[in-house]
Structures
1.
Amino acid sequence: MQKIRILLLKLGIRSNLKGFHFLLYALQLCLASEDYLLSVHKTLYVDVARHFGTSRDNVAHCMRTAISSCWNKGNRKLLHQLAGYELAQRPANGEFIDILYNYLRQEG
């Protein structure tokens, strides 16, 4: 969990955003079972929402806000490095989670 937290902070996502905590938990779930990557909207968001006592739509919105923060004010260069290619536009939630998931799996 600490590794994920540090990565999100390095990307410029502040821990005072709800999306930070939603992404942190979502990545933990994905690392425990990569099946979540196959059903982000119907499974991952639902389980994150249940854990935090909120709605699936709120989870998606808050994650999108955190990702926008990374894209607009954060460390975009690091995000490109993690992805392995230059992103032409802000990644969607599922793409962002997938990029971080694969980086974290690779780093072990």
2.
Amino acid sequence: MTAFVHSGDVPRLPDSTVPLSEVIAKATAGAALTEVDALSLLDAGSDSIQKLCAAAAFMRDQSKGNIVTFSPKVFIPLTHMCRDFCGYCTFRKDPQQAGKDIYMTPEQVLDVASAGAAMGCTEALFTLGERPEQRYPEAKEWLEHRGFKTTLEYLTHVCELVLSETKMLPHANPGTMARREIAALQPFNPSMGLMLESTSEALYAVGGPHEFAPSKRPRVRLRTLELAGQLRVPFTTGILIGIGETRRDRIESLVAIADLKAQHGHVQEVIIQNFRAKPLTAMGDFPDAETDELLWTVAVARLILGPNANIQVPPNLSAKDYHIYLDAGINDWGGVSPLTIDFVNPEAPWPALTDLKNKTEAAGFELRPRLPVYPEYFLNTKDFLPDALQQKVSALADSEGYVQGGMQRYASKF
């Protein structure tokens, strides 16, 4: 695919005239789709969605076999403060709402990480608001009192603590980052993440959900993904569907991700996340993303990203029928925790591991626990992880790059 992320803008893709059947045949044969090919997937109706799902599942099976993974994790919300205001978010809090605990202390972080390690978890997912010290004096004062200039400096410190003092692997998801900030986190994070969400201009226009969220501008998020690629950091990203974007917007977002993956090889995982309305938000009365739209998007993601991509749908956001997305080509369920809630979607509890295992096996797959970094980014390669981090990761992995002990590790803990 043609590179287009360097100009600072995200151009619209050209219209397509390629028959859908030809595009499906091309993708299932293992050939990369062009931008024009991708747009042929736009107008698939319910009958065509079934064809797209079948093709996507075939591609997944050819590359991944019957293995579907999840990451046993703890969720560490380092701070809920954020400079941004998004129309659907209940995670952010201002200092008055957060009370005295505007940041988790190092002791609190280590307590959660240690408890997770005792339950067999391997991922410490750090999620936090975007640069709150730029909006709130309270955040700046808290950091300065402890010797830090920025939230990202503090994040780097606690990631180092978790890596050195527990058997957990940090996975930082702090928002947009500069090159030096990614580089500072790199020795302590075998993988990092940032949701692209969407390249749609409408979402940050007046009245859009990102109008008051400058860090959600597609340019700055794509730039962070590009810098991570230049630094060879295994990276998780994804799109959020149902927040006002169109199918064409989703295709353009997925093409942008595929382009970065083709350039740098670092995009280890792509999350296709469905919007769920939350009370007391600006979008509280919006409808949830429809099942057919999520199926279409998942299948299209597989066709665009290719058979080797790792594609995830969060099971807690589709609790009644999450297993159907196996038919659309996913191969991962993302992080699941026996200890902490999903602080971004607190209304959506994780599935019990027995349920996740049973539904995955009923669909003909084997469920395996993975580390926050996928096997292909450290097994038989030294292209991505620093030596010390490579050794720590390898010590937690089995010969295939999955979590040592497999599912037996969690027989009495989830």
3.
Amino acid sequence: MPWLIVIGFVLGLPLAAELGGRVHRLITRQTPPDPTGAGFLAAGALGLLGLLMGFTFSMATERFETRRALVVSEANAMSTVYLRDQLLGAPYDARLESLMVRYANARLDFFSAGDNPGRLSEAARRTSKLQDDIWRETGQALKRPANAPLATAVLSATNEMFDLASTRAAAREATVPMPIIWAVTFCAFATAGVCGYGLEAGAHRHRVASTILFVLIAVALVLIHDVDSPRGGLIRAPQGPLIDEATDLAARQAGHAGAKPPERPN
């Protein structure tokens, strides 16, 4: 996550509150303070901001949970394809096993590429190439008369695995719409200004308490941004199921070849 966003929120909200206080002093020099009315305005602004932030956070977490569930689904799909491919017999089972190991690693590379366009493009290219190879090898295996009864089961599972790769790619692009993010950001700064205006009307700024409040709002906004950033940030959909599946596939391949199973990838 860009540190500029964190600094912008943490410093910008207290500054907006200070600006709101200065505006109050500027336009009410000749009038007595009215803390009640300004307090109602501040409370209303905070309520509206809380509603918008809750709505936006719900959208971001929903997308995060979708990405997390798709990792599990893709790992399960890989396991299903592998097991059904093993029913096709030699030499196709060994060939498809090797392709599945490489495919699982390519899918892990797709996640680890982060925001790097070059690595993302390379991971997508590898995924597409391996899909073509798996589909072609599967088709050759199913031409054998003995494998004809397995055609529907194997092809449907393989097709589902490929579809999940496309679904995960689309899910990584499905973030909270930018107009909503900008609206919440604008509302946060406007609310800070209204609160500063209301505190100045009461003749007690409570700078320490109000600064803590604005820092907490900033933390919540940064958290929303982090959850909504599938390619970066600290909060990312765990890849444990896919890592376990890739490790398991490699271990099975090594076991069939009589080699030492590889260590679990980081």
